Amino acid sequence: MPCNRFFSLAALSVGICFPAAALAGADNAAVNVARAAELAAIRAKHEQTEREVAAIMKTRQEEIRRERGGGRPKSSSNVDGEARPAVPVEHWSYEGETGPQRWGKINPAWAKCHSGNRQSPIDIREGIQVELETVNFDYKPAAFNVVNNGHTVQVNFGAGNRISLTGRTYELMQFHFHHPAEETVGGRGFPMVAHLHHKDAEGRLAIVAVLIESGDPNPVVQTVWNNLPLEANEPLVPTITMDVSQLLPQRREYYTYMGSLTTPPCSEGVLWIVMKQPITLSPQQIAIFARLYPMNARPVQATAGRLIKESQ
Ligand SMILES: [Zn+2]
Q1: Per-residue pLDDT tens for 85-135?
Q2: Ligand 1 centre and the CA of 37: distance in Å?
Q3: Domain ranges of the chain
Q4: What is the architecture, at CATH level 2, of domain 116-311?
Q5: Phi-psi region of 144 (alpha: psi -120 to 50; beta: other; left: phi over 0)
């Protein structure tokens, strides 16, 4: 098999080849122009988000400085004069001082992580079985970039991939992975999950969760692994396209409930669509992600009486 990408992390002696089929059509000039426009849009969106986040963090840091004592610059002592290392308000992780139990306390903007009562993930059980509307997945080969953002490996998209249900259309923004899967089904865990984040024109989020178990390799995940950036937070922009429909299971039954983002700021009002049928990754594909992220799953949260519906 021809090898158009080879990925090797230090001490990670895994060579990965992917069929050249995905390269077809890449030298079409019109496609290149469209792709350049898409990538420019992705970059602009990314930069805008970064500016917004930077502005929020700056405001918050100024507030903290004021709270810590009348504008004394960067005081790192408490009232007892005891030295206390300043914890950056934007830092969170999956264990220890900055782990999930502390997210809601680290930054007031993340209070929902602590006080919310419609949080995700959950253990999916006792759903009511009804005739759920089919989710219409309108995914097609699209340009993408891959970012290792320190919390997960994320694949970002411009416009073009959509889902629609209940009269709404949501655009695919990005997908990323957790190891192990964050959600459980009737108490059963899975080695990994992919979360596909979609947003509608009014900013409402719909996240499709695709559970992953060990088995045959998946071509989309292989493309992601082939294009893993070597540096954190530096997007790798491949010259090929990706057909995200190959990340979906064959059967389209799902569970659905209202929840939240599973990372800070833990915003609620998120429509969750958890596909019932898992897809498979090869043990090697799972091992690659597990090596980068041995544990990046938030624990399950209280369902707190929420309604869960599932396809019959
Ligand atoms: Zn996620």
Answers
A1: 455 678 999 999 999 999 999 999 999 999 999 999 999 999 999 999 999
A2: 27
A3: 116-311
A4: Roll (3.10)
A5: beta
